[in-house]
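Quick one before lunch.
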Amino acid sequence: MSESEIPEGSKDIRCIVCPTGCLVHVENVNGELIIEGHSCKRGEVYGREEFIAPKRILTTTIRVKNGFLPLIPVRSDIPIPKEKLQDTLREIAMTEVKPPIKMGDVLIEKVIGLDVNIIASRDLIEA
Ligand code: SF4
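Model of the iron/sulfur cluster complex:
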């Protein structure tokens, strides 16, 4: 990523990579990222990614046709850029799936064209 894409300002970010939960301070100083407060390299990487391009695992539900339950819990198989979450939720809201479904089944492949799949978080049988 070029320096021009680094956001301005600073952020205090709680590292969630391990239970220690260090508070990582990330600051853009004249286009250079200054990262402090981390106790290890993983925290530095996490702070940098959260500051520049935050991502999240998306968890939600998809409607099920003729299922034992009307909805099935799902999640993205890898984290999704935060700015893509709304579009992803929109596509998921327009989707309906049919049982039987096994936990881990891919229910939406390459959601909104990303290299991300939406997968089932549980098994679901027919009604
Ligand atoms: S910086 Fe390292 S030690 Fe601190 S919470 Fe993150 S992973 Fe854990």
